[in-house]
Design a protein that fits this description.
8 strands, alpha/beta
Length: 586
């Protein structure tokens, strides 16, 4: 026998009892592997059995449960470099349940030990520690791992846990070829772990599984189900520090700043957050416009803390943004003394100087921000400051440098417009007048406006405002196809430009492309949530798509933003007729 046995655990098979017994058996094997994780006297390695397809067109699949003969089990173990293999069968015969365990020695390819563990009603949760104790005894080891305590207190909680673990496996296997089915399996897994956590509030294992799945969701990029599960977990277990903390992380990733603040504060109330997390929480408060709690948190970071420099940097940024140069520069010096400065700090300092008309100082700070790795928006602000200083050629050089690397997006669009105005101020003024005429809908002026937009594009084919103007002209002329082309061109130059998304949605509605119109108008409304017209048009798109419930929510919200808007009122009237018609046929 080796000094440290290595046991390959073959997924346990099941006899009778139906599919759910198969899930219990498979995951019971997995639970044994988890139970011995970190055990210095013994290592357990899981075996994954793969059935290869007979033809290249057939998919491979995993055989989850098996009870192989000793020679085959030894072959599995040998491939993993193990000294032993463990196999088992969960049997249900009438009212009797039992787990037949076989420990195979690889060297002899024979069973080294066998046992049958009877499982009286209501005691399935106890069979895992019993199997662990038997394995340790059969290998003649004294584990430091707790082999005697069940992971949950009841059979109901245990079977729910095992079934949820099996759904995790389903989600993993389905992820590549059937994402929708994988998401459904993942939701069932989360629901199962929540049920197990509620069934046994003292057990850490169901909570741990939810936390693992939630952490993995950051890499998947889809977090809605995990956030909902964490919210329910924290309601059931208010003292679950890690659940509150991870919920804060996921809400931060999804842009839910206020929700993230709430979750981190709950975590902080259960257990004080480390100083770097306090700084992050303060930044969330600052981003939400809540300066007082941000400052209160930052002032608690002591000078000896590793996060002191970060705290002083954020204090300086907040002070600069509030126009308090004295406090900002004091914090700036403390941050520099602590070895912490970033482009954000230099940029905030530059913006504060610019707001006070101290353009030379502002330019210097913006150059510091660029040297520290600041993004294109810093160069755009530097160009604006240089223009305020009367240095037109220097501003043009900065704009040219920016546009050499930034081809699309908001910053590129703003820089291109600023450059266009410097190069041809007369044509820029004509562009402004043409845009106003197109929006006003004066049919007699549309030809002249279109001619101006064409001249602008001859000078700069990537000026998004000119493409937008052509789209408005086409929409006013009821040429939905031309309008769609123009607005899509705008979105190539500036993805997620709210006005272009909104106008694209209107053009798509004109073409009766309801799904695409709905997507564009919903996105525009999300980007401009306080614009009654955008919210109302999104509601109208839902009405046209037959989603009356969402249409009602959107239109009532639009009416709350602007109760006097006649278009919203007309949409609500049309919605009322559609709801009445639905009730008559319902």
């Amino acid at each position: 026998m080796t000094a440290r046995p290595v046991v390959a655990v073959v997924p346990f098979g099941a006899r009778a009892g139906g599919p759910v017994s198969g899930a219990w058996a498979r995951q019971l094997a997995r639970r044994l592997v988890d139970r011995f994780a970190g055990e210095p006297a013994l290592e357990l390695r899981p075996v994954f059995l793969v059935a290869m397809p007979e033809a290249t067109s057939d998919a491979g699949y995993l055989v989850f449960g098996s009870s192989p003969a000793p020679d085959l089990a030894a072959g599995y173990a040998e491939s993993l470099g193990a000294s032993h293999a463990l196999t088992a069968t969960l049997r249900e015969e009438g009212a009797r349940r039992a787990l037949d365990l076989v420990l195979v020695e690889v060297r002899t390819r024979q069973a080294a030990a066998t046992t049958t563990l009877d499982i009286p009603g209501g005691t399935l949760h106890e069979v895992e520690p019993r199997a662990a104790a038997w394995l340790a005894s059969a290998l003649d080891i004294r584990p430091v791992t707790d082999v005697s305590t069940p992971v949950v207190a009841t059979e109901a909680a245990y079977t729910t846990l095992l079934e949820a673990m099996d759904e995790e496996v389903n989600a993993t296997l389905l992820r590549q070829n059937d994402p929708a089915a994988a998401d459904a399996a993942l939701e069932r897994a989360l629901a199962g772990h929540l049920a197990a956590a509620r069934a046994d509030p003292a057990s850490a294992t169901p909570e741990e599984r939810i936390l693992v799945l939630a952490a993995e969701s950051i890499d998947r990029g889809s977090m809605a189900a995990e956030i909902a599960a964490l919210e329910q977990l924290t309601e059931a277990r208010p003292r679950a520090w890690r659940a509150h903390y991870l919920l804060g992380q996921l809400r931060t990733e999804t842009g839910d700043t206020n929700g993230a603040i709430l979750a981190f504060e709950h975590a902080h109330a259960v257990r004080p957050l480390p100083d770097p997390d306090i700084v992050r929480l303060a930044e969330l408060y600052a981003n939400a416009g809540a300066v007082a709690p941000a400052l209160a948190h930052l002032r608690r970071i002591a000078a000896g803390s590793a996060a002191y420099g970060q705290a002083q940097e954020l204090l300086a940024i907040i002070a600069f943004q509030r126009g308090d140069l004295t406090a900002g520069e004091e914090a700036f010096r403390r941050a520099v003394g602590a070895g912490t400065t970033s482009w954000e700090l230099h940029a905030a300092h530059g913006a504060a100087r610019h707001a006070r008309g101290e353009t030379a100082e502002a330019a210097s700070r913006y150059r510091d921000a660029l040297a520290a790795g600041g993004p294109a928006v810093v160069r755009l602000n530097l160009a604006r400051v240089l223009l305020a200083m009367g240095e037109r050629e220097a501003a043009l050089r900065e704009l040219d440098a920016l546009l050499a690397t930034e081809r699309a997006g908001e910053v590129a669009g703003l820089a291109r417009r600023l450059r266009f105005g410097l190069i041809d101020p007369q044509l820029e003024r004509e562009l402004e007048r043409a845009g106003q005429a197109a929006l006003a809908g004066d049919m007699a002026a549309l030809d002249d406006a279109a001619a101006v937009f064409a001249r602008v594009l001859a000078s700069d084919p990537d000026l998004w405002e000119a493409h937008f103007g052509l789209g408005i002209v086409a929409r006013q002329r009821a040429d939905a196809a031309a309008a769609e082309r123009a607005f899509r061109h705008v979105l190539e130059l500036w993805p997620d430009q709210p006005d272009a998304l909104h106008e694209l949605g209107v053009a798509l509605l004109m073409r009766d492309d309801r799904p695409a119109a709905l997507a564009a108008l919903d996105r525009a409304a999300a980007l401009r949530p306080d614009d009654a017209a955008y919210v109302a048009d999104a509601g109208f798109a839902h009405l046209r798509a037959g989603d009356l419930a969402t249409a009602r929510l959107q239109l009532e919200r639009a009416a709350g933003l602007d109760a006097q808007d006649p278009i919203t009122t007309s949409y609500l009237v049309e919605l009322g007729r559609a709801e009445a018609e639905a009730r008559r046929h319902g």
